[in-house]
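Lecture notes, part 5. Sequence design as translation. It can be helpful to think of inverse folding as translation between two languages: the language of shapes and the language of residues. The source text, in C-alpha cells, appears below.
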C-alpha cells in the first residue's frame, strides 16, 4: 500500500512542470493586451477625423486568439474599398515587428457615426412645401440615413417634397426640389440692366423655374428666345 502511494506521488511530481508550462506563454510572448483594439480605434479615428462626425465603436470582434510578441508593433489595416469608416465592415489586420509579420488576422467591426440631421417632426406628403414647424435637428447615424442629408434647416425649409416622408425620418436632400416661381407659358417681365441703363420688355416663359434658375424666355418684341435668371414670380433678368 505504501509503495502504491509513493508511486502516485512520484507521477504527480513528474507531471507538475508539464502542466505549468502548458498554461504559460513562451518567454516574450503575450496574448493581445489591448493593442489590436487600440490600433483599430486609432485607424477609424484617422479615417473619419476630417468628417466632423461623432464616432462610437459599437462592436469589435477579433478573429481567432491572436498572440502578440512583446515590444512595439506596426499595424496595417485593409478595409473594403467602398467602406467610409462607419457601419459594418470586416477588416484585415497585419502586425509587423522589425519588418517581420507577426500577426495576420481579421476584425469584424460595427461603427456608429452620428451627425446633425434635419428630420421631419410629422408626416410630410408628396408635394408638401416644408415649413420651419415641420422639421427639427437631431443626431442620427449616418449609416442609417439612406442618402444625402443636411444639418442646416435653411437647406430644407421652403422646398417641396418629391415623395412622402414619415414622421421622425431624416429628410434627404435628394428628395427635395425648389418650388417653381414661374411656370411655362406664363407672361413675365424681362429686365436687362447695367451701370448705365435698364431695359424692360414683355416676355413669355418657355419653361418653369425656381428663384435663381435659368430658363428660356421669349422676347415678345423680337420673338427671340433667350436665357434668363428667375428673380421672382413675375420677373426674369438677362445678362446685358
Amino acid at each position: 500500500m505504501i509503495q502504491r502511494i509513493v508511486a502516485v506521488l512520484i507521477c504527480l511530481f513528474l507531471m507538475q512542470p508539464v502542466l505549468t508550462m502548458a498554461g504559460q506563454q513562451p518567454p516574450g510572448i503575450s496574448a493581445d493586451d489591448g493593442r489590436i483594439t487600440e490600433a483599430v480605434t486609432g485607424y477609424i479615428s484617422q479615417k473619419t477625423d476630417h468628417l466632423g462626425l461623432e464616432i462610437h465603436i459599437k462592436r469589435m470582434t477579433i478573429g481567432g486568439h491572436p498572440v502578440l510578441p512583446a515590444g512595439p508593433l506596426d499595424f496595417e489595416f485593409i478595409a473594403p474599398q467602398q467602406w467610409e469608416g462607419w457601419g459594418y465592415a470586416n477588416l484585415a489586420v497585419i502586425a509587423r515587428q522589425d519588418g517581420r509579420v507577426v500577426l495576420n488576422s481579421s476584425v469584424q467591426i460595427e461603427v456608429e457615426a452620428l451627425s446633425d440631421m434635419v428630420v421631419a417632426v410629422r408626416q410630410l406628403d408628396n408635394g408638401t412645401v416644408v415649413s420651419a414647424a415641420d422639421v427639427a435637428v437631431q443626431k442620427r447615424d449616418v449609416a442609417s440615413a439612406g442618402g444625402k442629408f443636411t444639418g442646416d434647416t435653411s437647406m430644407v425649409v421652403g422646398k417641396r417634397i418629391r415623395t412622402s416622408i414619415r414622421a421622425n425620418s431624416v429628410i434627404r436632400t435628394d428628395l427635395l426640389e425648389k418650388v417653381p416661381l414661374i411656370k411655362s407659358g406664363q407672361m413675365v417681365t424681362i429686365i436687362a440692366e447695367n451701370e448705365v441703363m435698364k431695359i424692360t420688355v414683355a416676355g413669355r416663359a418657355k419653361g418653369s423655374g425656381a428663384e435663381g434658375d435659368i430658363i428660356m424666355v421669349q422676347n415678345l418684341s423680337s420673338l427671340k428666345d433667350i436665357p434668363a435668371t428667375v428673380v421672382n414670380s413675375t420677373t426674369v433678368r438677362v445678362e446685358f
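The translated text above is only one of many valid answers, since several sequences can fold into similar shapes. The first strand starts at residue 29 and ends at 31.
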